[in-house]
Amino acid sequence: MSLLADLIASLDSGALKVVDLTQPLGPQTPVIGLPPMFASSPGVSIDVISRYDGKGPGWYWNTIRMGEHTGTHFDAPVHWITGKDLADNRCDTIPARRFVGPACVIDVTAEVAKNEDFLLMPDHVTAWEKQHGTIPRGAWVLLRTGWSKRTDPARFLNVKADGPHSPGFHRSTSELLAKDRDVLGVGVETVGTDAGQAGTFDPPFSNHATMHGNGKFGLASLCNLDQLPATGAVVIAAPLKIVDGSGSPLRVLAISPAPPDQPQRPAES
Ligand code: MN
After folding, report:
1. Ligand 1 centroid vs 218 CA: distance in angstroms?
2. Which of 59, 140, 166, 248 has its Cα between 20 and 30 A from that of 76?
């Protein structure tokens, strides 16, 4: 049991920290827009059941309503038609072990600052691997774009006359990660795991089509990726166990080494 005891001691000493990769979830949470011929997902609504009042004098609780794919959320393989017949493809049937994996953080903030339609290419992945090592099997690959700094919902969704513009993955990169690297899935700071313009790609939404067709997952609307090292953190991303669920809002946590430039705080006594 020393591994787990060491884990707790390291969290207490500050040698390891828990980084919350989750955006706040509420009525202000931006929701992806689809062309009008498709059904769209509602935003978040929260209604009080009682709050220490006549409806419940000693307690407070709410009813929540939202689409499964709202805010920081998980995409299960069954979300996409390419993954609809795979085994263990739903929120309630994915083995829990598959929610935990090492994080590989690919920082393309500078590229995205110059080009909001930036697509990660296989060359970017292999260049990253030259520096940090090959992406291990069962990793969460997190695309750090800086997009979560866009706190204004209009800038976050970035919809223009020809549709949304935001970074993502080229299809060939999704293929590389899903098939060759056998990752758990990809995580992004944007509203979905495909680029804003991916409705025009072949196939449309090629990251969803490729990842989910290969049984891989997605994490959308992450934040605080700038607090993670390129390698060395572990991500825990467990969706709600929704029966036949295609996805779920979730709390995404990373356990990460404290950055070397931040002095470790002494254990609290
Ligand atoms: Mn989704």
Report:
1. 7
2. 166
